[in-house]
């Protein structure tokens, strides 16, 4: 591989060498300082049927160029990708995600929440693009950067904010925190602190779906699972093991890689032998797609196809979304390592700004309508913060609840009774 | 193998199990087990007979019977029943549960077409299909995580580690997700998973295949650990583990799979949290589990001939400990000997010693003696392997010293 031959200190400072078939993708993909900061030709998905993994065959799933405006000009007015209602829903979801994360930062610095908080600013297109296509019964599995996935899936902002404040009214009763958002009602299966940990859980949820359809013969058991994770996770064994199992058993799952190029301070290029993650899908027998993750409509188009594929029982898809986080890895990260030019480049591709422009240009929404949505979200968040502030902290009695689903698991005490019958248990003062 | 352990003295696993049969309890089915209601009562065999049972209240949604234990009736033999080997007992328990609840499924390496490397799942794939008895690729961490995801979304999987040692690769999933997920989700998701597999020192299997993981897993909050030692308790614990809403790790032992015993024909489920009284006695309490139970019983034969009267308890529940059965015994005999196969450092015996000292210090006439395996990777050579594990002669010596 030509890459390994070059002295590759930092992707920004060293112009990358590239393999012939992937030249434009590679040179612009990794936030380099090249003057041409655009893709020149579309990147196509690899099909399971094609023997070579690269751009030989076209498929219905196409990841197109990053220029939304250019894309828009290619279509006529009656051939828009979304309706006005859908557009407003998408806009509102992205605004909710962005404003919520900004509020989180504020609250963190005011000392309302602690620990590790990982914000999603800049990546909203991926969450909105994918999750807004799901049914309530579909499953979403996320990582520690899960606030916006929770919000997109439908978990009320109040509950998420309360959870971040560590209050008893949080979605996990204050026991999970920022990195462990769960919701049974909205089928959000977490919220995992270790990277890669959620992918097998997602695979299990997809397995459950298939099991219910084929063994229990439940009609309409076609729930799809989305597993979100980052570029760093794509070097982890659990990722590959699950790609294998999902493809082997044709599980209804979509693996969504949010490639924001950085795993804390480790650039994706410095950590990965072949940085093109989408190519790893075909190695396991599933389509691998690369999409511009800063463009919500492109993500949505790809997501539609991938989710429908899974729902039809055709198996998994690996979708790599090129995206970027505007803030540091977490609120504790000073974010000094990333090149300001790279940050500026992606700030110029802010998914919300781009989508707003699309809505205006296609006369799908007016300035006032969008401002009204902005205001609505502001009020929603103010209410969420107020609710979280006023919510009670978890009482001591909550300490020993939920350790076991069946509290008999605490065992039998010296007095012959189950320990959970000890009143100190309900008070939370017993020692286990 | 089976006959060797059958012939151990007057006290055999047989009599222990017969003492439990006579106290069959009729319990109202748990509210959550709607399937059982149509099939009739479940017999929950407990080592006590007193029927101070609180019926399941809708509020609690679980059955918390009064756990006061009494001595079982040792004189009534089982009239009927069928004889089988321990791995067959496990299979029977598994099959009954799979029959009873279609959400119960098995996943693991070679559990399907191969029938399980220790034949525990033999015949099940033919009966229930390849999806219900799933042959997985060799990816312990991921398929254990898959089991956890499936458990969260409504299934009741049983994950088999071909050898318990392989589950070290699944430690991430077992610790973070299996144990903690119920808590971090604020109680929203339950993980009714059973993780089982054979562990322990076998016959010259080498260091890596002779591991005792109970010591590594015991600190994980949110899981229960049980160890089976007879066909009777293997089937009962398997069924209890599958029915439990908690994640349960069931430790089997490589050398015990061919034990033969007669078990009841009727359905029975044992309690996951209770210890088993193997041999009541007066002089010393010997606490043990899994394979060491047989070394202890062999030593007991010698001790009885020498005039001692040891009380042998198979603790069965490695986490949590049944402090009641253990405590009652300590209060009676005032001397404790723990015999285990775990490593000395940080093993189950170490925790048990601490628990007994904390709770029953005043009742002890002598320091607790804990016999564990040496802190040595199990050697291949037979002679060396023998010396790493506790042998009956050491047990006899320890009891003699303790009772001086």
UniProtKB/TrEMBL annotation, chain A:
<keyword id="KW-0175">Coiled coil</keyword>
<dbReference type="InterPro" id="IPR029061">
    <property type="entry name" value="THDP-binding"/>
</dbReference>
<dbReference type="GO" id="GO:0004739">
    <property type="term" value="F:pyruvate dehydrogenase (acetyl-transferring) activity"/>
</dbReference>
<dbReference type="InterPro" id="IPR050642">
    <property type="entry name" value="PDH_E1_Alpha_Subunit"/>
</dbReference>
<comment type="function">
    <text>The pyruvate dehydrogenase complex catalyzes the overall conversion of pyruvate to acetyl-CoA and CO(2). It contains multiple copies of three enzymatic components: pyruvate dehydrogenase (E1), dihydrolipoamide acetyltransferase (E2) and lipoamide dehydrogenase (E3).</text>
</comment>
<keyword id="KW-0670">Pyruvate</keyword>
<dbReference type="InterPro" id="IPR001017">
    <property type="entry name" value="DH_E1"/>
</dbReference>
<feature type="region of interest" description="Disordered">
    <location>
        <begin position="1"/>
        <end position="20"/>
    </location>
</feature>
<keyword id="KW-0786">Thiamine pyrophosphate</keyword>
<dbReference type="Pfam" id="PF00676">
    <property type="entry name" value="E1_dh"/>
</dbReference>
<feature type="domain" description="Dehydrogenase E1 component">
    <location>
        <begin position="94"/>
        <end position="394"/>
    </location>
</feature>
<feature type="coiled-coil region">
    <location>
        <begin position="363"/>
        <end position="390"/>
    </location>
</feature>
<keyword id="KW-0560">Oxidoreductase</keyword>
<dbReference type="InterPro" id="IPR017597">
    <property type="entry name" value="Pyrv_DH_E1_asu_subgrp-y"/>
</dbReference>
<protein>
    <recommendedName>
        <fullName>Pyruvate dehydrogenase E1 component subunit alpha</fullName>
        <ecNumber>1.2.4.1</ecNumber>
    </recommendedName>
</protein>
<comment type="subunit">
    <text>Tetramer of 2 alpha and 2 beta subunits.</text>
</comment>
From TrEMBL, chain B:
<dbReference type="InterPro" id="IPR005475">
    <property type="entry name" value="Transketolase-like_Pyr-bd"/>
</dbReference>
<dbReference type="Pfam" id="PF02779">
    <property type="entry name" value="Transket_pyr"/>
</dbReference>
<protein>
    <recommendedName>
        <fullName>pyruvate dehydrogenase (acetyl-transferring)</fullName>
        <ecNumber>1.2.4.1</ecNumber>
    </recommendedName>
</protein>
<dbReference type="GO" id="GO:0004739">
    <property type="term" value="F:pyruvate dehydrogenase (acetyl-transferring) activity"/>
</dbReference>
<feature type="domain" description="Transketolase-like pyrimidine-binding">
    <location>
        <begin position="84"/>
        <end position="259"/>
    </location>
</feature>
<dbReference type="InterPro" id="IPR029061">
    <property type="entry name" value="THDP-binding"/>
</dbReference>
<keyword id="KW-0560">Oxidoreductase</keyword>
<dbReference type="InterPro" id="IPR009014">
    <property type="entry name" value="Transketo_C/PFOR_II"/>
</dbReference>
<dbReference type="Pfam" id="PF02780">
    <property type="entry name" value="Transketolase_C"/>
</dbReference>
<keyword id="KW-0786">Thiamine pyrophosphate</keyword>
<dbReference type="InterPro" id="IPR033248">
    <property type="entry name" value="Transketolase_C"/>
</dbReference>
<keyword id="KW-0670">Pyruvate</keyword>
<comment type="function">
    <text>The pyruvate dehydrogenase complex catalyzes the overall conversion of pyruvate to acetyl-CoA and CO(2). It contains multiple copies of three enzymatic components: pyruvate dehydrogenase (E1), dihydrolipoamide acetyltransferase (E2) and lipoamide dehydrogenase (E3).</text>
</comment>
